[in-house]
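Two records follow; treat each independently.
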Amino acid sequence: MNLSELSVGEAGTVKEFTDLEMSVKLMEMGCLPGEKITVARVAPLGDPIAIHVSGYQLSLRKFEASTIILQ
């Protein structure tokens, strides 16, 4: 399952990434393997989504969220 498939309030743990270039960017923002991610909000049209990770809130596009594989 990837992050873009979760609904508001659901959580998961980062397992791996599908895009190497995007993974570097996401890891710099705190989305490290083993970190818990919770979906906080979804925009009315579904893009972007707001997540809680590493103690702060982060907004991601659906494409970026789809590169994060969860356990």
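The next record belongs to a different protein.
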Amino acid sequence: MQYWENSHAAAQNVAVLLFDGFSNHCLANTVEPMRAVNRLTGRQLFEWQFVSLDGAVVSSSSGLSVTPHSAIGGVQGDCLIVMPSYGFRAHGGGGTHRALRAAAQRFDQVIGMDTGSWLLAEAGLLDGYQATIHWEELTAFAERFPEVEVLRERYVMDHDRITCSGAMAAFDLILHLIGRDLGQALAVEVAQLFMMRDSARSHSGGATPAGRLVNRALAVMQENLEHPLTIAQVAARAGATQKTLEHRMRRELGAVPAAVYRRLRLNLVRKLVEETDLSVAEIALRAGYASPAAMTRAFREAFGTTPRALRQG
């Protein structure tokens, strides 16, 4: 059972343009949520490649070397992510600007991560757009590029341009895009996989009453996987009626509480199958199933395979 929206979505082709001095943290927070989506859905919904201006090796601010898949010239796709981070001013110049302007014609969407906004603005790719940048550079950015409407936000989405203020905000941005394009329930799964405390923060409107209620309910579910509660009990512990919880969760996550709860238990099954040597019977008990057969049926329906086949594969 797939309860995320747009479950027939085509794979999104992403190119990450790295410059010397890029942030490992920003890169990980950009790519790892996409990897998690592929793992959770069992589909390659995101395909990415690392590129540089000339195809040469690039080194992060902490010395991690990355060998790009190719140079940026000729690469095309759905989304180009520009990621210079530290020392970004040294990466400007005519060659960079021409490469960015040409690449922008080959991608449906361009994202400036961290200080990538500066290079995009220098290339004229943010003229008339709203944008943000790492907040340490915000004042200088606004003074240098008066044709850009500069906002102090974690990220700004303006048609085919997106700008993001830094590494932590990058995770929030990618979660938001996952929720927008593939459904909020899947975004919550990704957030929980990374043990994000406020798993609905980035895609359910922030600290709204509805967001807090859904988060409380998710926490109750997560704490009661081995001995599942009824949805009425979950709602009560979250401080709401069952009807209210069902309405809020359907509105925010696109799924009823029972479906979300079942998915959390099955995610635990998959984790235990892949990462432990526990027997299928023991895993069934830990995930709150009365029998291995019942667990296997639910697992096959959700993931298209059985726990034993997953472990053997």
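Discussion point: The longest helix spans residues 257-275. How would you locate this feature using only the token line?
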